[in-house]
Amino acid sequence: MDTSTSDLDNIFEEIKRLDLMQNFAELEAYGYTVIENLLPQATLETAREQILKIAAKQTGREPDLKTGKEHPDWRLIPYLMGRHSIFQEILLNEKTLALITYLLGYSCNLSSMTCHFKGPGEAGVLPLHCDTGMPAPLPPYSNVANVNFAMVDYTKEGGCLAVVPESHKFSRNPRPNEMALTGDNANPMAIPIEVPAGSAVIWHGNLWHGSYPRTIPGLRLNLAVYFARPWWRLQERYGDSLPAEVIERHGNNPRFRQLANLNETMGWQEEGPSFLNLKDGGANINAENIARRMRALNGSGWHA
C-alpha cells in the first residue's frame, strides 16, 4: 500500500465494507446522497422525544406534533450533542461518518448539532444557500459537510429539505435571484428531498440547499449535524466545555475525541503548546510526531 494515500485507502475500504459505493458515487455526481431508514426506530423515537422536551423548555410551550400550532414558522434548537447520550450515539453512526470522512478527512471536527424546528407558516422557508462561507470561486473540495437526519417523514408540503443537484460543482454561492424556493421566482433547479423518518441526507459543503415552508399542520423536526475541517471556525464549543459525564463516557474513543475537539492543542498561554516540552527543549518532537501533526493539519492527505 502506498503510504501517501493510506488514509484514503482506509476510508475507501470502509465505504466498500459498509455497502456505500452507490452513495459515494452520488456524492461525487450530485453533491448529496440519501441513506433511507438508517436510524433504528428506538433511536429515532428517543431523539425526537428529547428534542421535543428541549423545545418545550426553550419556548415555554408544549410542542404538538400533530398540529404545530404552538410553534409556527421555525426556530433553532442548538447544542444538542452534549445534552443526551442518544445524540452522541447518532454522531458516531459508522455509515454517515464514513461518507463525512471521505469528504473532510479523519481530522474533521463536529461544528454543531442542531434541530431546525418547524411548524406551519410561510416564514418557515430557508432560502437556498451553501455553507462554505467564502468568496467565489469556492475550492472544489469540501471544507464543511452536513448530515441531516429526518426526525419525521420529509415531504415538500411538510417543509422538507431542498437541494440543487450538481450545484457543488458551481464553486460559488447562489446569487440573490437564485435563492427563492417559493413564488414566481422560485429556483426551478431545486428539488425536494422526500424521505421517511430515520433517513439521513449527506452533502458536500458547496451544495446549494434550503428548506420549504410547512403548509400542512404538524411539526417538521430534523437533526442537523454539521462537520468542518480542523482549520474552520466551529459553530459550537466542545472540548473541555462538554459535560464531564460525556467526556467520561466517550473520552477513550479516539474518533469521538477528534470530532468533539478534545484533541485541540491551540490556544495556549504561558504553558505553551501541549505537544512540546518547554522545560527540556521540545523533547516530545520527533519525526513521527511531526508527521502525525502535519497529517492532521492537512486534512488527512486528500482533497487539500
Could you please describe the fold and organization of this structure?
It is a single chain. This protein has helices at 6-17, 21-30, 41-59, 85-91, 94-104, 244-250, 254-259, 287-297; strands spanning 32-35, 74-77, 109-118, 126-129, 144-150, 161-163, 191-192, 200-204, 209-211, 222-228. It has 304 residues and is an alpha+beta fold. The chain has one domain (3-259): Sandwich (Jelly Rolls), CATH 2.60.120. A 6-stranded antiparallel β-sheet has the order 1-8-5-10-3-2. α1 (6-17) packs antiparallel against α5.
Brief account:
With 304 residues, the protein is α+β, with helices and mostly antiparallel strands. It is 27% helix and 16% strand.
Write the layout of secondary structure elements.
Blueprint: H1 6-17, H2 21-30, E1 32-35, H3 41-59, E2 74-77, H4 85-91, H5 94-104, E3 109-118, E4 126-129, E5 144-150, E6 161-163, E7 191-192, E8 200-204, E9 209-211, E10 222-228, H6 244-250, H7 254-259, H8 287-297
Helix pairs in contact: 1-5
CATH topology, anyone? Jelly Rolls
If strands are numbered along the chain, what order do they take across the biggest sheet? 1-8-5-10-3-2
Shape: globular
- CATH architectural designation: Sandwich
What is the succession of H and E elements?
HHEHEHHEEEEEEEEHHH
CATH class: Mainly Beta
Helix content: 25-40%
Mean pLDDT: 91
The N- to C-terminal Cα distance equals 21 Å
Q: Provide the number of structural domains.
A: 1
Q: Could you tell me the number of beta strands?
A: 10
Major sheet summary line: 6 strands, antiparallel
